[in-house]
Amino acid sequence: TTDDTTALAALFTAASGATARLAGGRTYKTTSQLTLPAGTILDLNGATISAAHTGYGIYIAGSNVTIQNGFITKAASPGVYAAGSMGIYAIGTVNGAGVAPTKITNLRFINLNVSGFGHTGINIRYASDVLVTGCYISTCGYSGVTGLSVDKMIVQVCTVDGLTGETSSGNAYGITFTSVTDADLVRYPVSEDCLA
Which residues contact 144 (CB under 8 A, 6 or more apart)? Predict the structure, then answer.
């Protein structure tokens, strides 16, 4: 029942550009989103980050990030659809109308179990050179793995299971690559060179 949010945030800040390794087998409870700095490797080392809040479990807005070897779960109401509830959310910068986004690069998600989030297990926007491998994503509300306006994204040796579906339509997507909208395909380009 301990709230580990502040301690984890401090650990991630201190490990910026290096490796943060959690205690194996431990469960860390968070009450708000964690932000992982650019250039950081998060080795969960078999530990669980249990998000007791809505929103993102882990937020990434920089390049050269790896998350590996553990569990990221939503503690309350697993799989109940909720827009914005994502296990991992990585996003580059969307720019003005008619201007291409500034993409983050070199993202790695390896041997993770992500479950219970109301929208997406792993959601990547405006990024290039992304690898999702050996991951098990379950009991999410809308999508297992989503790439929006990404290029060179590979999802391999992964399982998506038990999606509950969006509330009004019932739609659910295991792995998808697309754009945010087709209204401005320079600002929100179609995903390219992706493989699942």
Answer: 120, 121, 122, 137, 158, 160, 163, 173, 174, 175
